[in-house]
Each structure stands twice: as C-alpha cells, then as structure tokens.
Design the sequence.
C-alpha cells in the first residue's frame, strides 16, 4: 500500500491589510495591547464581494500552474472552511467548477482551526487505499464575513486567507504523511461558536439584532484549552514514533496567538528557529493558518525535502490535532 504526501502548495491571500492602527480607530484597544496579548500586527482582509471560493480557486490554480497537472485528473476536493460562500452548495463544488476539475467529487469540512489537518488526513486515506491518485485539500477562511468589528475580543484576532495542498501517493521508500493524532472535546463547543444561522437559532431579526450570527468566544477558556491540548497531542504523537522535540526539523503550529504557540514550543522543546510563525502578518485565519505557514516556511527556505515536520492545531469544537510527515519536495 502506498503512503500519501503533499506534492505542491498554493495560497489565496487578499492584498488588503487591516492594521492594529486601523483597529484602534474602530474599537477601544491599542496596538501595544494587541501585540503583547496576541503577537498580531496586521491581518489580510478581502474587498467587499471577494469570497472563500475566489481565494480557494486562486490557491488551487497556483498548484495547477506550478505543477502543470491536468485539472481533470484531480479526483477529490475537500475545502476546510467555516466561511463557505453560501450554506448551500458546498464551496468545494464552486471550486471544482472554477478550476475545471471535471473528474472530481468533493465536500466541505467544518471543523474550524483543525480543518486543514483533518481534511489532509481524510484525503490521505483515499490516496493510501489507492482509491484516488490526486486530492486537493484547501484550508481557507474569510473570517471578516463572520466577525463583529465592534467586539474588541474577537476582531483583533482574525484575518482572511489560506491555501491549498495537493496530496498524491508516495514513491517507494518515501514516508510522506507518517501519522496523525486528532481529538475533539465537544464539551467546549459553547466557548467558541456562532450561535445563530443554523437549525438551533435560524436567522431572524432577533438573532441579527443580538449579533448571534457573529463569532462569540470566551477567550480565556479557549486559551487554556489551546495551551494544554495542542502540545499534549504533539508530544503523544512524537512519542508514539520514538521521537522527541529534538528530532523535529520544522514545527508548524496553528497560528491562534503567539502566546499559545510559545506555550507549545516550551513544552515540546523545539528550538525557536525551527518553529514557523507568521501570525504578525496574517492573524488567525482559522483553517487557513497551516497552509499559509507551510508557504511561509517554503519561502523562508526553512522547509526542505526530507525534513521531519510536526503540525499542531486547536480550535472551536473544541477540536485539536497533530500530524507528522516527512516533507517530500
Ligand atoms: N484591547 C484592549 N483591551 C482588551 C481587548 C482589546 N482588544 N480585549 C479584551 N480586553 C480587556 C478585557 O476587557 C479585560 O479588561 P478587564 O480586566 O477590565 O475586564 C482585559 O483586557 C484582560 O482581558 P483578558 O480576556 O484577560 O485578556 P487575555 O490576556 O485573556 O487576552 C485574548 C484575550 C482574546 C487575546 C486571549 O484570551 C486569547 O487569545 N484567547 C484565545 C483566543 C483564540 O485563540 N481563539 C481562536 C482559537 S483557534
């Protein structure tokens, strides 16, 4: 049975920036507070009318252009997002049409910040069984569409953007995706949620007036879970393979908050120069952070063929994940 590996990446990032100084004019906050508590300086934000499928298709098209693959040979498209263009149809269908992936089926996956890792694992399963040869995994969110820019606790954190990964079978002797360890703890659901717009509270004048269609979070509870769970899963996954933090060549954590990343790094004991951090520029793009961080690592020359790469994620659900792979290109 072959393994599965990432063979190409693309990104979809809007050019517009929302800076801390912009936010100082919108809510009662200061750039100093934001930097100290989160490490964020700017976030990329879409122009009005730009959608998740626009950016996702751009990321997918980059892969097609870079690799020269025929889009009709893509078998599966999974879009991990909590900001689909519409509730129906799935954004994966919109991307499939836009990029001309005539032979693909697909679906969206709604598991917030763990979306990219969970979708990558699902795609990898199809590739490993031989059912598919080419799967496209997209992790991308237009968070500005669900953020209340009068709520200083959430509006300072989130940004728009993400990326796409092509998953293909490994060659003989290659490791590719080595293993994963994903967990959910549904008891944390209420602490990071969008209360309305689903079957529990269908959209109404009342839900709109009370802003229940925006992201609501209890930052402290989320922070506590994130600082405990992400490193715990990473350590358990490494130990399962006889590795420690010392063996990791590159650690790519979900970019939720610089303090959450620092807590994970302390626990894992991975040297900081092996940790990919781009939260200062992008903020938290939910399902978009990990593909964007892979892109950063590649651009900075920090990620090379043969590197042992550890990924960690944590977010709404609560959901969390860890993945270990040998970088393949
Ligand atoms: N600017 C200035 N002050 C702010 C503020 C802002 N943007 N947001 C909150 N505050 C205030 C609070 O009202 C509070 O004031 P008070 O003491 O008078 O009540 C004070 O700052 C401290 O708030 P606190 O909630 O303790 O701050 P914190 O250190 O926990 O940081 C978060 C807040 C949201 C940055 C932090 O909890 C966090 O990052 N949580 C995780 C969120 C996350 O990552 N979500 C996505 C998960 S994938």
Sequence:
């Amino acid at each position: 049975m072959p393994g599965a590996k990432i063979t190409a990446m693309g990104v979809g990032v809007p050019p517009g920036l929302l800076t801390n100084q912009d936010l100082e004019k919108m809510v009662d906050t200061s750039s100093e507070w934001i930097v100290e508590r989160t490490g964020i300086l700017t976030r990329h934000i879409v122009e009005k009318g730009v959608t998740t499928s626009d950016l996702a298709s751009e990321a997918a098209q980059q892969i097609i252009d870079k690799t020269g693959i025929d889009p009709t040979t893509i078998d599966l498209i999974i879009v991990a997002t909590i900001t689909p263009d519409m509730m129906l149809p799935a954004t994966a269908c919109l991307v499939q049409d836009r990029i001309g992936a005539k032979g693909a089926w697909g679906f969206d996956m709604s598991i917030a910040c763990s979306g990219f890792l969970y979708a990558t694992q699902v795609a990898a399963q199809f590739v490993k069984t031989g059912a598919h040869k080419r799967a496209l995994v997209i992790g991308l969110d237009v968070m500005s569409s669900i953020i209340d820019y009068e709520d200083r606790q959430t509006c300072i954190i989130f940004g728009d953007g993400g990326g796409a990964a092509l998953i293909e079978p490994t060659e003989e002797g290659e490791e590719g995706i080595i293993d994963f360890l994903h967990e959910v703890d549904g008891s944390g659901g209420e602490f990071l949620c969008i209360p309305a717009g689903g079957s529990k509270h269908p959209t109404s004048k009342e839900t709109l007036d009370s802003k229940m269609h925006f992201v609501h979070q209890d930052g402290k509870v989320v922070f506590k879970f994130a600082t405990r769970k992400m490193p715990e899963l990473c350590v358990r996954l490494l130990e399962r393979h006889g590795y420690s933090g010392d063996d990791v060549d590159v650690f790519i954590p979900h970019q939720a908050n610089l303090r959450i990343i620092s807590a994970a790094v302390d626990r894992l004991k991975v040297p900081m120069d092996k940790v990919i951090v781009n939260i200062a520029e992008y903020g938290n793009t939910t399902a978009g952070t990990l593909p964007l961080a892979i892109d950063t690592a590649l651009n900075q020359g920090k990620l090379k063929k043969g590197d042992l790469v550890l990924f960690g994620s944590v977010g709404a659900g609560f959901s969390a994940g860890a993945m270990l792979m040998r970088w393949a290109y």
Observations:
- Residues 11 and 163 are 4 Å apart (CA to CA).
